[in-house]
Specification:
With about 450 residues, this protein is α/β, with parallel strands linked by helices. The chain is built from twelve helices and 18 strands. Helix content is about 30%, strand content about 30%. The chain has an eight-stranded mixed beta sheet with strand order 13-12-11-14-15-16-17-18, with helices on both faces. It is globular and about 80 Å long.
Length: about 450
């Protein structure tokens, strides 16, 4: 099993970063949803509860003693949320080691049963945070289910308007290959290593999806999962990177995977020939650090919106629309990249999903045709115009948005959506807040709920 990944909304990450820079040790109870996935565990951060002043018997730079008053209220809150609780504390001072001391190990043994019993969850874990000489956050930790083998927390993924991936203390960084020299000159070795550790899913392997895969694999992403239900058609050849006439009839996901492996023989590339609107496929996507949505169906975009909220997964959703008259006169070329992270409005809140069409896409063909004929459901559109120039442009914008959030070179506040009006030669950004009470609204407390039933809080086709 891979090491566990701790996923934190940026505001919780910032609070821990500040605490690690304090002059005395600080204790917290971190409430998480535990998402158990094939070969991996994701700890989805929901709330961070600092130990109140009255909960300390003593506290200084070398240690602290905490009474039950310091954590019992947080454990009661965890039980209400259905969350597990992790014990978190800091080792203050620049250059301090985040490795647990013998005393830390003893405290873990004392707390584990209490945390499990009070929360009603089988999981317990502990994480220590510190800062290195450059005041960057470092950490080590573990999580354990009942009496099972402890699972190291190997990765810290902070998500929001900015993104950051931190590997646990002591992780060997390895030598930087000369092939990345130009990238490293642009944005540094740490970012290059982070790209190599990211687990990225691409939903839709046609014109936009294949262009995304082409770019991220050449940038250094080495863990890719490609999802698409369709086989390559002759009309796909003009847009899909890596395809040849000999590939017609093969699954698009497998054609693209073969292309990526030629670019990056060391990459781990997996495929799913299926639709995101099927629950098993959506569950696979939930194991990702980042998802690029390159599908043109509305029902799939509804799933992407929910994945972003329930699993704290940054989603970069891409859209291209070429409008023309029946005589072939182009009237508009519009591209869109919508980035869904905590605090940003989702595709539903932005009215980027046609809800009637989404419902129609989930029907059987016979049911859809019958209801459309009776006027109760919209018919689905035919094949839309698509040109490689514009699908590639939008893919580049989406990958550029991932880089911007990892590097942080753009404006503040960070726009949640980029619009490209190619026909007017205009590029703009905007910000949209969630609708009150919607699942993407932090006040609705749906962020990071993870493996709930029904999955993603919605019904699924049989």
């Amino acid at each position: 099993m891979r090491d566990a990944t701790l996923v934190l909304p940026l505001r919780l990450h910032a609070e821990l970063e500040a605490a690690a820079s304090a002059s005395a040790e600080v204790g917290f109870v971190l409430l998480v949803s535990v998402a158990e996935q094939t070969g991996a565990v994701r700890l989805l951060g929901r709330e961070l509860h600092p130990v109140p002043d009255r909960g300390y018997l003593s506290r200084d730079i070398d240690g602290m003693t905490v009474t039950p008053t310091g954590y019992l209220a947080a454990l009661a809150r965890a039980e209400i949320l259905g969350a597990a609780a992790l014990w978190v504390h800091t080792h203050p001072g620049p250059g301090s080691s985040p490795r647990p001391s013998d005393k830390d190990a003893q405290v873990d043994r004392q707390l584990a049963d209490t945390f499990r019993i009070r929360t009603g969850q089988p999981w317990y874990g502990a994480v220590v945070f510190a800062t290195d000489q450059e005041t960057r956050l470092t950490f080590s930790g573990h999580v354990q289910r009942d009496a099972g083998k402890p699972i190291p927390v190997g990765r810290l993924w902070a998500v929001g308007d900015r993104l950051s991936l931190t590997m646990s203390s002591g992780t060997y960084a390895g030598e930087m290959h000369a092939m990345w020299d130009r990238n490293v000159r642009a944005f540094g070795a740490d970012l290059q290593r982070a790209l190599g550790e990211l687990h990225v899913s691409i939903v839709g392997c046609g014109g936009t999806g294949s262009a995304v895969a082409e770019q991220v694999s050449r940038l250094g992403v080495r863990h890719l999962h490609l999802i698409d239900p369709d086989a390559l058609s002759e009309s796909n050849l003009t847009r899909m990177y890596g395809s040849t006439p000999a590939d017609v009839g093969r699954p698009k996901a497998e054609v693209l995977a073969a292309h990526v492996r030629r670019i990056a023989p060391d990459a781990t590339v997996t495929t799913t020939v299926g639709m995101l609107t099927m629950e098993p496929v959506a569950r696979q996507a939930a194991a990702s650090d980042v998802i690029f949505g390159c599908t043109d169906d509305n029902a799939g975009r509804l799933v992407l919106s929910r994945l972003a909220a329930y699993y704290l997964t940054p989603v970069f959703d891409c859209g291209v629309l070429i409008s023309s008259t029946s005589a072939g006169l182009i009237t508009g070329i519009d591209g869109r990249v919508t980035v869904m992270t905590p605090g940003q409005g989702c595709l539903v809140c932005r009215d980027r999903v046609d809800m009637q069409r989404a419902a129609s896409e989930l029907m059987t063909p016979a049911e859809r045709n019958r209801l459309a004929a009776e006027g109760y459901a919209p018919g689905l559109p035919g094949i839309e115009p698509a040109v490689i120039t514009y699908t590639t442009l939008v893919a580049a914008l989406a990958v550029g948005e991932l880089l911007e959030r990892l590097i942080g070179y753009g404006p503040v506040p960070v726009p949640g959506e980029i619009l490209a009006r190619c026909h007017d030669r205009e590029l703009s950004g905007n910000i949209a807040k969630p609708r009150a009470g919607h699942y993407c609204d932090p006040a609705a407390e749906q962020f990071g709920r993870g493996d709930i039933s029904p999955f993603l809080g919605q019904t699924w086709p049989a």
